[in-house]
Design goal:
The complex is a heterodimer of chains A (about 280) and B (about 190). Chain A is of the alpha+beta class and about 280 residues long. Chain A is built from nine helices and four strands, in the order ααβαβββαααααα. Classes of the chains: A alpha+beta (about 280), B mainly alpha (about 190).
Chain lengths: ~280, ~190
């Protein structure tokens, strides 16, 4: 996170150095606009994620097996019980959303409910509750927001470099500006994805600690690896919220993945019980 | 002049460090009290289900009066328990009587088949799961408190800040370990 903030600050500094005084109104207007966008996304992000994936809320009587599991895991982790949603999709997957434990939501697919036995389902739910407990949704929203801001600033730098008069700046500084502007969004995305992957490992560990049974989660991951976790509704902006990568494979390489590879996650989980 | 400034800064820094340590110990202390209350909430839920269960079994097995007496007495004792150790012991003792009660129920297939009994079993199993979850959370908080209290640098000041002892875990007797693994034997 610190790296991100430093990055943003550096970009803003670079921008103001290059274009001090020129059309700063547009720049600040845009910055305020993107800040508002980020704030709105922060507060309504979970509702959007649920609506986009067409999830339905359930009560205890609709699915006692699922609801009781969520309830009991919440007690184990010391969290208030999240709302429970089900998503109609044959692919086994789950996600958690909500910026703090009080407004949290857990959603599972019908495919997950069918495929998993009790211990495995518990592992997956514990992982999701781990995300809620670690405020991961908030972390990734902020990271995503900073990526937006960085991309915006970079875009501005590019525009101004092309269309400004260059009396005040040497070609070298301008070149640096262009270079930074092109690279910035890419680097920002890499950082955001790396953060997302680390938090996935952390949620795995938190979930394993809560259930005291990492094998449940490991075996669930293996089943998902075989069955494939690509959901019917493909949406890259909510992809990072899911338990396993919901996007179809092929076009996305490892560096761009929001989730660590399943094999690595399983290996880490299986080694948990064995060292002192 | 500079020496005065250095001394003031040092005092302020030390003050901040002490405040942070104290607050973290107080927070964990409060959390563990709350966690213990939550255990009692779940336990109460379980004990509230018992009279219904006893009357359901009595309907079919009127003459097993010793078991009913034991269950009722263990329940009374458990409801009156105070503090972690006493509650844990009463919990363990009660579990033993529950096993006898369900052993009695197994001899009466009509009872086992009845809707009422099955619903009660369902509720009790879920309640036992919740008790276990609450115990686990409580023990986690106690572990964090004890660790904080005894690790450097907080351990230097913990005693003088008023935190002189480790808290006890909600531990159940070795012989009760099996009762915990399968909280209530609801197998047929």
């Amino acid at each position: 996170m610190m790296l991100f903030l430093v990055f943003v600050a550096a970009l803003i500094y670079l921008f103001s150095y290059l274009f001090a005084g020129k059309s700063s109104g547009v720049f600040y207007g845009g910055l305020i606009g993107s800040t508002i966008y980020v704030i709105v996304a922060y507060y309504s992000g979970s509702k959007m994620a649920l609506a986009m994936n067409r999830a339905q809320e359930i009560q205890k009587k609709d699915n006692p097996r699922l609801y009781r599991m969520v309830e009991n895991l919440a007690i184990t982790e010391g969290l208030p019980t999240p709302k429970v949603y089900i998503m109609n999709d044959p692919a086994p997957n789950a996600f958690a959303t909500g910026r703090d434990p009080r407004s949290s939501v857990v959603c599972v697919t019908t495919g997950l409910l069918e495929l998993m036995n009790d211990k495995e389902l518990e592992g997956v739910l514990a992982h999701e509750l781990g995300h809620i407990k670690n405020y991961d949704i908030r972390v990734t929203m902020i990271a995503f927001a900073l990526t937006v801001v960085i991309s915006f600033i970079a875009d501005m730098i590019l525009r101004f470099t092309i269309f400004s008069d260059r009396e005040n700046n040497s070609p070298a500084t301008l070149l640096l500006g262009i270079f930074a502007a092109i690279l910035a969004p890419i680097v920002a995305t890499f950082i955001q994805l790396a953060i997302s992957r680390r938090r996935e490992y952390l949620a795995d560990a938190t979930g394993a600690l809560a259930t005291r049974y990492p094998e449940g989660l490991a075996s669930a991951l293996e089943k998902i690896g075989k069955a494939g976790s690509a959901t019917k509704v493909q949406n890259s902006s909510t992809a990072h919220l899911f338990f396993a990568n919901p996007l179809k494979k092929g076009s996305i390489s490892n560096l761009f993945s929001t989730h660590p590879p399943i094999k690595d996650r399983v290996a880490r989980l299986r080694s948990m019980g064995t060292h002192a | 002049m500079t020496i005065a400034i250095i001394v003031i800064v040092a005092v302020v820094l030390i003050g901040i460090v002490v405040a942070v340590m104290y607050n973290s110990l107080v927070t964990l202390n409060q959390q563990s009290s709350e966690a213990f209350s939550d255990i009692k909430v779940q336990l109460k839920r379980r004990y509230d289900l018992i009279p219904n269960l006893v009357s359901a079994v009595k309907g079919y097995a009127k003459h097993e009066s010793t078991v009913f007496k034991e269950v009722t007495e263990a329940r009374e004792k458990a409801l009156g328990a105070n503090g972690v150790a006493e509650t844990a012991k009463a919990d363990g003792d009660f579990q033993k009587t529950m096993k006898s009660l369900f052993a009695v129920a197994e001899a009466y297939p009509d009872l086992k088949a009845s809707d009422n009994f099955q619903k009660l079993q369902d509720e009790i199993t879920d309640t036992e799961d919740k008790i276990q979850a609450a115990r686990r959370f409580y023990n986690g908080v106690v572990r964090d408190f004890n660790t904080k209290r005894t690790t450097f640098p907080t351990n230097v000041l913990a005693g003088s800040l008023g935190f002189k002892e480790d808290k006890e875990f909600y531990a159940v007797d070795e012989s009760e370990a099996e009762a915990i693994e399968k909280p209530v034997d609801v197998k047929f």
